[in-house]
Design a protein that fits this description.
The protein is of the alpha/beta class. Helices cover 47% and strands 12% of the residues. The strands form 3 sheets. It has a 6-stranded parallel sheet, with helices on both faces. Strands 4-3-10 form a 3-stranded mixed sheet, with helices on both faces. A hairpin with a 4-residue loop joins strand 3 and strand 4. Helix 7 runs antiparallel to helix 8, helix 10 (286-310) crosses helix 15 and helix 10 (286-310) packs across helix 17 (398-412). The radius of gyration is 23 Å and the shape is globular. 51% of the residues are buried. It binds D-mannonic acid. Residues 186, 226-228, 296-297, 300, 370-371, 378 line the site of D-mannonic acid. D-mannonic acid (CS2) is lined by residues 186, 226-228, 296-297, 300, 370-371, 378.
Length: 482
């Protein structure tokens, strides 16, 4: 069977949307670090729209920071891939052509650094997950990043910050033009976090010239990104082949919904991204970001741990159970909403109604085990603001306690813990075995997880009670108890 490639685009059936431009004529204007499914389902599609509007200088060079699997899969396809938009009733295929190069940083470091310094590159975007920002408990560099900042100048950089720093230091030395960094990960104030980490890294290296250049010539606007993009399955490969008639080694499945809100502070050229459906350039992304992290992602993490514990493998399967759906609706309305300013509450009600439909999309197999990864990075961003707000207002938080209990249960139960990874918590989890109340107290003692509420006795008790109930009666009974 024929492989998807530039030469075989002409074989596509008329129903399949394909690049409305000549991919070979595209220039690279964006370097993207962490080129996984989310990037390919989200930002790469917006750049594809821009290329389709005749702006041929916004092609993407995608960089994998660790594995070369994507570069190997997409090279024979010259970077083309199939986007499967899965609605509840039907699936639509589109060929995306914006990914003009795929590089593997560890084996092509010189090329990656050259690209970061290339004057034609105007934007460097990132999807490196919460862990990729290498934050330690104090919000600065973690140990790994500190070690990388102290590595000899001629050692090849590794880790997001070291690679980005090395590329930007070279850009400055070569007199390169200003640059915009677009963090597209689910962190609050993601651009600010990125800039803070980069500056701290440069400081640790004692590189004053790069520090000044970062201040004067680089912007890192905050962004809010939203599109559900599960890991690719064999069923996705089969559907891509059936719909396009071509073999694609690594298609991406996603939902019809997409949203990308960007603070309008570009340091270099400003791409006309707003022509792409779902993209907005705004003065301030804070409201959008709080709503998305505090309602969508917060619910996702709760569904992930309760779902894993109950044996529900996907979000759609989990939300199909009325006790869970009902519990999630209450979690939103009674606890999570309080992390938002009152002015956003009416919008939150509409947003969560839409979320229920998105979560229930039977076309998407979004695994609870996938979302369960890296809870130590995710839960403080997703659950803690609501807990703090409820505490400040004297509101009880039994549902959030159950969410934390479900996470703790998944960490303590070996058969569940093997289904996801979390380097930030692996060492601690062993101390969380034993009676539920002791384990909950040990969890709550962590300032990295609970901030100023760390060690709070009432919180420890609440989570301990929820954990005991969950472990004695199971998830369904535990939810019903609310
Ligand atoms: C999910 C997100 O894996 C996770 O933690 O909550 O990837 C989520 O699907 C996206 O943020 C949706 O925009």
């Amino acid at each position: 069977m024929t492989r998807l490639a530039i030469d075989t685009l002409a074989m596509l059936p008329a129903t399949v949307r394909r690049p409305a431009y000549t991919p070979a004529g595209v220039r690279v204007g964006i370097v993207h670090l962490g080129v996984g499914n989310f990037h390919r389902a989200h930002q790469a599609v917006a750049w594809d729209d821009l290329l389709g509007a005749g702006q041929a200088h916004w092609g993407v060079a995608g960089v994998s920071l660790r594995s070369d699997t994507l570069a190997r899969a997409l090279s024979p396809q010259q970077g083309l891939y199939t986007l499967l938009e899965r609605g509840p009733q039907r699936v639509q295929a589109r060929i995306v052509g914006s990914l003009r190069q795929c590089l593997h940083a560890p084996s092509q470091m010189a090329d990656v650094l050259r690209l970061l310094a290339d004057p034609q590159v105007q934007v460097v975007s990132l999807t490196v997950t919460e862990n990729g920002y290498q934050r330690g408990a104090n919000g600065d560099l973690n140990e790994q990043a500190l070690a990388q900042a102290q590595a000899p100048a001629d050692a090849p950089p590794s880790g997001t910050l070291a690679v980005l720093y090395a590329g930007l230091a070279l850009r400055r030395q070569l007199g390169g033009p200003p640059l915009t960094l677009l963090s597209c990960d689910n962190l609050s104030g993601n651009g600010q976090v990125l800039m803070h980490q980069l500056r701290t890294f440069a400081e640790r290296r004692g590189d004053q010239p790069t520090l000044s250049w970062l201040r004067d010539s680089v912007s890192a606007p905050d962004t809010m990104v939203d599109r559900i993009a599960p890991a690719t399955t064999d069923a996705d490969r089969a559907d891509a082949r059936a719909l396009t008639g071509l073999v694609d080694a690594w298609p991406v499945a996603t939902e019809p919904f997409t949203q990308w809100v960007i603070a309008d502070r570009f340091a270099g050229q400003r791409p006309a991204l707003a022509i792409s459906p779902g993209v907005r350039l705004v003065a301030d992304v804070t409201g959008y970001e709080r709503m998305k992290l505090g309602l969508l992602n917060a619910a996702h993490s709760a569904i992930a741990y309760l779902g894993l514990a109950a044996g529900w493998t996907s979000v759609a399967e989990a939300i199909g159970h009325p006790p869970l759906q009902c519990w999630i609706e209450r979690l939103w309305a009674e606890e999570l909403v309080h992390a938002l300013p009152a002015s956003l509450h009416p919008e939150a009600a509409t947003y969560t109604r839409e979320l229920l439909v998105r979560f229930a999309n039977p076309g998407l197999r979004h695994l609870t085990a996938q979302i369960a990864n890296d809870g130590s990075q995710k839960t403080p961003l997703r659950w803690l603001p609501a807990l703090q707000a409820c505490r400040a207002a004297g509101r009880p938080t039994p549902l959030l306690s159950t969410a934390w209990a479900a996470w703790l249960h998944c960490l303590r139960e070996p058969a569940l813990a093997v289904q996801f990874t979390d380097p930030g918590v692996a060492a601690l989890a062993a101390g969380w075995r034993g009676p539920a109340d002791t384990a909950a107290r040990a969890l709550v003692a962590q300032p990295a997880l609970f901030g100023s509420l760390a060690g709070d006795p009432a919180l420890g008790e609440g989570i301990g009670r929820a954990l005991a109930r969950l472990e004695a009666d199971g998830v369904v009974a535990g939810l019903a108890a609310h």
